[in-house]
Amino acid sequence: MKIILLTDQLIQSDATFIVGGWIQSLISILQNSKKMEIAVVGMTAGNTCFEKKQNITYYKIRHNFPNPLKRIYRRWRRTIQDDSEIKEYISAINDFNPDIVHIFGTENFLCNIIPLIQYKAVVHLQGLINPYSNAWFPPGISEHTLNLHSFRMFDFLKGNGLYHKFETFKVMARRESDYFSFIRFVMGRTDWDKSMSNLLIKNAQYFHLEESLRPDFYTDLQWTFKKKDEIRLISVLSANAYKGFDVILKTAHILKSHGLSFRWTVCGASEKDNVIRTMEKILKKKYKENNVAFLGKKTSEELRSLLLDSDIFIHPSYIENSPNSICEAQILGMPVIASCVGGIPSLIQQNETGILFPANDVFLLSETIISLISDSQRMMQLGKNARVVAQKRHDRDAILKNIENIYREIIEL
Questions:
Q1: pTM above 0.70, yes or no
Q2: How far separated are the first and last CA of the chain, in Å rounded?
Q3: What structural domains does the chain harbor?
Q4: Mind listing the pLDDT tens digit for each residue in 172-207?
């Protein structure tokens, strides 16, 4: 079988793999297959080139980074793709002559390629823009309120404020809706994305494939409860309004008012991110004053160390498919508390492998944290159960065998 994988992410100039955790992890699994010939197409900051490493053919497509003024112009025009890059991708596909084109995500421009090629294509679902846009604004915070409090003149002039991001998101949602008319095969990993596929992508055949995690999390290192002077909570979130940053601030305030000694660390987002400052303005509270610290982006090794040194992993988002961060915490054996939204219930069995709470229920979340932290045996059991399930769910040999079967079935259809 000849399989070509398409991603819009950058391929590092000094490394073979693509920037991006789970896609890179899947590629590392595929390169071990003796039944497939694999190619990967991605972007590069350098010149378009072709190379072969570790049994994988790489097509690196030059990404045309516009100058600063053109970037601002494109943001204001909501320009979300480059037709010249689409032609380069098609050229790479035709050169490789695959049995299947494997496309990552409906959020980018790559699905536009499907009607332009004669090869079978399967789309690997990540997030889905249309359901995500429905949950963009936190409950009780209107579009007007968010835009008003997030307004910063410099960001606005650059077309880089929260207002512009949501307007661009809506354009991406319309483009995604257009894709649904010609997608015929999809891969996913949760009950939620299967339901969304049934609803939005009519007549598409769905294939279930579990997610591969970053190598640093396949480890003998295992979380264990260690009594400390303060409770250590941790979350891993990108800087988007629908990620529940308001939930964190409101919950932290409740925990502090109850006299709990804690520190809540948030990785992925920075205190300088606009959404963080905006939530402080709207809620009239400061994260720092409520024991919340933002560490920004961390490497997988750094994150693993932070997780192992924390007590509870908390995921407060308003919408998700299957967050890598939850899976990584589970495979380390951590107790996890997460909002019951999207595909998260496919990852957590209530009170067995974690605890689910209704989105935005900061009072129940606060009580759950206080109750759980006082029961170390329950924390250990939840983490142990989660680790057993996660090790099976993310088993790399099983994932390889399954994806080979999926490709074979699609070829035969």
A1: yes
A2: 14
A3: 2-212+395-412 (3.40.50.2000), 216-393 (3.40.50.2000)
A4: 999 999 999 999 999 999 999 999 999 999 889 999
